[in-house]
Input
Amino acid sequence: MMLHGIGATICKTLLVACGAVYSPMTQLHDPETLALDGEDVLTREEAAPFELLEGAVDRGLVLLCDHASNHLPAHYGSLGLPIAEFERHIAYDIGAAQVTRKMSKILGVPAVLSNFSRLLIDPNRGSDDPTLIMQLSDGAIIPGNANLSNEERARRLEHYYRPYHDAIGQLLDSCIKSGRPPAIVSLHSFTQKWHGSMRPWEAALLWDKDARLVKPMLDCLRRETDFSIGDNEPYAGNLQGDTMYRHGTQRGLAHVLVEIRQDQIKDVPGQQEWAGRLADILTRIMADPERALELSIIKK
Ligand SMILES: [Zn+2]
Output
């Protein structure tokens, strides 16, 4: 079944047809029971390249998860990699999808999650970024990405990358049409160790020029937890062409990229704790009328 095209059509139809609630029809699986063992991941039927979660478009908030899935469409096999590699961060952000789903439910806001591994194509890169399709990632050579033809590159852009970004763009359009432009919260996770060293931050907020949402979130996280919270560490949030640049900076929408260390959210209790913590902080921020107004201004 060629679901990628259908996914895009459904998205378009929904955005036109829905009133205040963004209703997904692309719920592909029970998120809590999604098997992450190699065989299931690699043989799961071809699915839509993104997943939409239901939520109110006029609540001023949209959630994104770029690296939600380690799924590869069946015809790509395992890109020549041992299946175990798909359990690692090189394939997806461990725990990030579950945190996103739980936050969407608690807050009642819509979310878009990717439904393909970043090893196929990385949606958090500009389409001309040299790391868009990685040939080498954290020590693993990816045979299925070596010497890629222009046709295959274009195919991945057309069938996976663009439908995901189109879905985000259309959801944001729909929110803006409701009269309340949304702030965007993008959820990611990072590894505990990097090149043999432990990373000290339990979580981090990444941003570029727009601090509207970053500042109050950073204040809350630092004041209310004992965690070390990175501010543009371990990564800088100013990568041109990435998801936040494209949908946040370029559209003038308030945004933040939240990175959570993987040991914090590798299991359900940690995922619940972080989803609850972030949802609570966002609820309080949005409950302040002045702050909410500032976050809804399109600022270019
Ligand atoms: Zn990520």
